[in-house]
Amino acid sequence: MTSKGAEVGTVRPGGRTARVRAAVLRATEDALVEQGFDGLDLGAVAQRAGVGKTTVYRRWGSATALVADLLVDMAEQSLPRADTGSLTEDLLANARLVRRTLADPRQGTLFRAVIAAASCDERTAEALRRFYQVRVREWAVCVEQAIQRGELPEDTDPDEVVRAVSAPLYYRLLASQQPLDEASADRAAHAAVAAAKAGVYARTR
Fold first, then answer.
1. How many CB atoms lie within 10 A of CB 61?
2. Is the domain covering 78-197 a CATH 1.10.730.10 domain?
3. What is the pLDDT of residues 152-194, one digit of tens each?
4. Which InterPro entries match (predicted)?
């Protein structure tokens, strides 16, 4: 049962309920990788997860709710940010993590499916926005620390710097189909650092 006002599928449960959630989300991920969002069916997910169909319908109720909860789980499970004491090294770590994720056959396919779903469903789009807000804010601390060390102008927007690191990699994944190699990740990080030091990512007034 969810607390009053909570969105279905987003409450963090414990015990058996946690095991059911984990199994259903894994099955949801498998279905997205294999069939895409259009092939996501609650009954089929329940069968994959080995749980009752009524459990899935009662707890989540829709394919979009499943994807939203999967994105919550993905944000919770993401690796923590680097903390090397150097902006360049921190952002290189960020770029390489993004590249490894997107270049992975399973994870890259999963992200393409989720992004495709978000393009035509507002609930999924909002869940995806929340996912990236969590990840950007996690890594923005690296930029904030660089500002405090005097590496960057004081008016630098940390979130924009972090977005600038991953944007070229997502472009390769979704648009150009160019290889997602480590050189492209390193180039994105170095470009973001150079632009930030030049004041390109100053906060707008």
1. 13
2. no
3. 999 999 999 999 999 999 999 999 988 899 999 999 999 999 9
4. Homeodomain-like_sf, HTH-type_TetR-like_transc_reg, HTH_TetR, Tet_transcr_reg_TetR-rel_C_sf, TetR_C
